[in-house]
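Reminder to self: keep the SMILES exactly as supplied, no canonicalising. Ligand is adenosine-5'-diphosphate.
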Amino acid sequence: MAMLEVNNLSKSFDKLEVLKDISFNVEKGEVVAVIGPSGSGKSTMLRCVNQLEKADGGTIKVCGTDMLVKNSSGKTVYTDTKTLRDIRLKTGLVFQNFNLFPHMSVLRNITEAPVCVLKQDKKKAKENAMELLKKMGLESKASAYPCELSGGQQQRVSIARALALSPEILFFDEPTSALDPELTGEILKVIKELAAEGMTMVIVTHEMAFARDVADKVIFMENGYIVEMGAPEQLFGEDASERVKQFLQRFNS
Ligand SMILES: Nc1ncnc2c1ncn2[C@@H]1O[C@H](COP(=O)(O)OP(=O)(O)O)[C@@H](O)[C@H]1O
Ligand SMILES: [Mg+2]
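C-alpha cells returned for the bound complex:
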C-alpha cells in the first residue's frame, strides 16, 4: 500500500508558483531522496504534506486518508480537523535546524508530545524516550539542555523526538545541512539504520553519495516541477537527463 500519494499538488505564494504539478507515491518501507537546486520547492513540498503550509490544489493521501478535499464550489480545501490531526500523527518531520525546545531538557523534548498530545503515561513516555536516546547513543545526555549539545547530538535528539510519536512516515528536510562536515556522518548513519529497520522515509538532501546509497527512489525537483524520478542507478547513471547530470556535476568536484 502507498503510505503517501501526492497528485498534481500545486502551491503559490502570492504570484509566485512554487509547486506546479507534483505527483509521486511513497510505498511502505521505501526511502525516497529528494534532490534539486535551492529554491526548487523541496521544503515547500514537505511542508504542505506535513500541514505546515497550505496547498492550493491537487491531492495528498497519507496511509489511504485524504488530506485535501473539494468543497461544494470545487475549491481544494483541507479535510476536517479530526482527520487532519489523525493524519498529522502519522507523519514526522525533522528540520535542518533541529528546532528543539531550548528551555526543555533532552528527555522532556522527547516526552513532551507523547504526554501532552497522545496522553501517554509519563513513566511510559520516559521509558520510551530513554530507549530512543539509547538507540541514538545519547543516554548520558537525557538531562542536558539543547545548548549543551553539538549540532549532531541535537539532530539525533530531534530524530528521537520525531520517533517518539511512532510516525508511519518520517520526513527529513536537509538534516545535515546545518552541521559541520565531520558531524554529518553520524546523522547519515542513524538514517541508514532506520532504513534498514524498514522505516518509510522522504529525505531532502544534498548528500548525493548518501542518496545514491540509501534511496530506493530519487526525485529531482526544479522550478516547482519533478523533472526526473527513478531508481538511484537511473538518476545517478549514464542514462540520466542532461539537466540532472549537470546538476550532479557540482557535487563531483
Ligand atoms: N513563506 C514563503 N513566502 C514566500 N515565498 C516563499 C515562502 N517559502 C518559500 N518561498 C519561495 O518558494 C520557493 C521555493 O522555496 P523552498 O520550498 O524553500 O525551496 P527549496 O527547499 O527547494 O530550496 C523559493 O523561491 C522561495 O523563496
Ligand atoms: Mg529547502
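Points to follow up:
The two ends are 40 Å apart (CA to CA).
DSSP finds nine helices and twelve strands in the chain.
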